[in-house]
Amino acid sequence: MKRAKKTHCTVCPTWEIKQPDRCSNTLKNGLKTLYFCTHRCKERYLKTPEKFS
Ligand SMILES: [Zn+2]
User: Fold this and answer.
1) Model pLDDT for residues 1-53, shown as the tens digit of each residue
2) Distance from the CA of 7 to the center of ligand 1, in angstroms?
3) Could you tell me the distance, in angstroms and rounded to a whole number, from the CA of residue 40 to the centre of ligand 1?
4) How far apart (Å, rounded) are the C-alpha atoms in residues 41 and 9?
5) Which of 5, 6, 24, 48 sits at a 20 to 30 Å CA gap from 16?
6) pTM, full prediction
């Protein structure tokens, strides 16, 4: 099995998303998918995306 790159929450980069394929707090950004540990993180990102790019 191919070892996947670690996925971290876009808003809190120290938080590892253990199962990104099961993560429901995601956002499509062009070809990339952004992952968030919680819905709250996603909302924070949506308010100020430039802070987390
Ligand atoms: Zn987070």
Assistant:
1) 666 689 999 999 999 999 999 999 999 989 999 999 999 999 999 999 999 97
2) 11
3) 8
4) 8
5) 48
6) 0.84
